[in-house]
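Handout, page 2. Input:
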Amino acid sequence: MKTECYLIDGMSCAACSGAVERVTRKMEGVDQSNVNLTTNRMVITYDEDQVTPDMIMQKVDKAGFKATLLDPDAEKKEQEREMEKQRIQLKTAKKRVITAICFALPLLYISMGHMVPFPLPLPAFMDMETGPMGYALAQLFLTVAVLICGRKFYIVGLKALAKGNPNMDSLVAIGTGSAFLYSLVMTIGIPKNPMNAHHLYYESAAVVVTLVMLGKYMESRSKGKTSEAIRKLMELAPDTAVLYENGVEKERKTEMVLPGQHILIKPGSRIPLDGTVVRGSSSVDESMLTGESVPVEKELGDTVIGGSMNYNGAMEVEVTRTGSDTTLSKIIKMIEDAQGKKAPISKLADKVAGVFVPTVMVIAAASALLWLVIGGKDIAFVLTIFVAVLVIACPCALGLATPTAIMVGTGVGASHGILIKSGEALEICHKVDTVILDKTGTITEGKPNVTDVIVLEEGRTKEEILSLAASCEQMSEHPLGQAIVEKAKEEGVDLTMPEQFSSITGSGIEAVLEGQTISVGNRRLLEKMNLQPDEEAENEYGSSQGKTPMYLCINGRLSGMICVADTIKETSREAVDKLKSMGIKVYMLTGDNRRTAEYIGRQAHVDEVIAEVLPEDKAAQVSRLQSEGRTVMMVGDGINDAPALVQADAGCAIGSGSDIALESGDIVLMKSDLMDVYRAIQLSNATIRNIKQNLFWAFFYNSLGIPVAAGVLYLFGGPLLSPMIGGFAMSLSSVCVVGNALRLRRLKL
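Output:
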């Protein structure tokens, strides 16, 4: 199966996106097809043996739209072209709206001036009574000018109708076109019957088109804001890089730079590509990528991310990733994919929208016939009913309800370093009632730290114990030994290089330092040396607190003990407490021994600890909780937890944006901070609440608007809905839905 992304031109409402989905899904070999009305993109998965891109584009073309295959290797350029195209279209739309308003206002003055309490002055040749033909021709001229500005409705709408896929534009075209043609017939008959001037509906056609154009313009402006997160990310990556070869600087386009080449990063410039620091050091701002506001210190051997901002130092960087392989490109692709994938909650709206337009056309025709045949109303009244129903029933709001909220929600998440891969993942998070946390690297720092230095031989000091142990461990590559060295450096302890060094597998090390034999290791080492551990000290400082004790022996005498532990992160306890306050049960899942695991669990305030679990058995534990009817989120480092992340209802990879982390799970937390798990669930709750509000408004609006437009209130002595008011209300509903979605940008996480 192959997955591709296409840009779809010509869509205006949910009926359009539904039509594209319908025709592509019917194709033999297509597994799934999802169209996003907000981004105008279709993500399609198909069997390459049965379907080709040309077949897909032809099928979409037959439905009345145009599909363009997006090249993943040129994604940035495609994005920039698309954004520039949107800017031009928005500028053009603005000009047309202003022009239409300039013609519609005098049209209203002419056609409705006689209805106000104080009749508005008009030249005699344009007066309805004294110059009916001039009165009609002036309106005709002004209306034609407005309809030319809004010609897209007629071109697209009638084309879609002819293809058998009527949409919102079809409703506007049929409704306003009917009003215009009826008025034109009346105008032609004025020389024979001057009273025809009383039955003109030019203003209804022109004002409805103007209001719908205004609504579409405002909608487009608002929709543009929903993709702000992607736009900001795209702007991060510089177009050029300073290539540094043989001491010579050359400016090159970033796409011309190859992995393995060296680039120079100057103070105050953005890092163009992913790489590794080979010379120099600096502070780097990665906040737009990770959400972490504190600058990160970069030194020799550290990785840098393309798009981040270099502060005060100069660095020489060896490029490791270019083009679509960079972390920034992958993040942008992930956000786009998330915005293109539909949440399950949108399926109802899609089903409704798919049959909505044809149903509305039937309702409009039936309402008009009923008033004509049974109600005995004249053609003018019937036409008003017909146009009002068609115009007010536009399903735009219905089609925008879900994708706009998902776009804004994923954008807000990305700005906080929370990358949500799909609308489904975003939705499922609000249902989570159980969170399983991996221990190492998730709850804890993921690296050992020295917590205690204990003197066991009289006459010795803590500084001496630490200095001797660290001096010997300089030669060791063991993580526990390196933790001791790091502690000594932090304390400013002087270190001496040992004269002799040997490693004792599974036990520790032995070295000769300034004529003394120094041994550092675990209980197994003491057994080999026929020494007894200090049980009291070990119980007080060691394993009972989840720490690993390391013994130091000097010339065969037990002299000290150094305790090492993987300490919990500063925010882990707060995050667990926050999750529990939401009614979520929190588990800790680890392969560590039970004693250590339970100590860490108590520190982190988790509800239950599951210890001594092999990596391959973690998925089984997730499955067990799911079988109890729980909705489970698994949070892990994205490597050894991969099976469990996949098994969970929502997999959450916590890490710094490594390839494995980006590919594992449904959500990626760029910061290694458990508070982001709480924030992700918070964001999900807010987004789903927003979608429900949008859907309620859209369904409520259409459910209320259609009967009113059909004349139900008029039956009981109420008012008759004007097509102009219907057009305004229809536009307003779409703007309200998009505006409500944009409120998510103010969400405080």
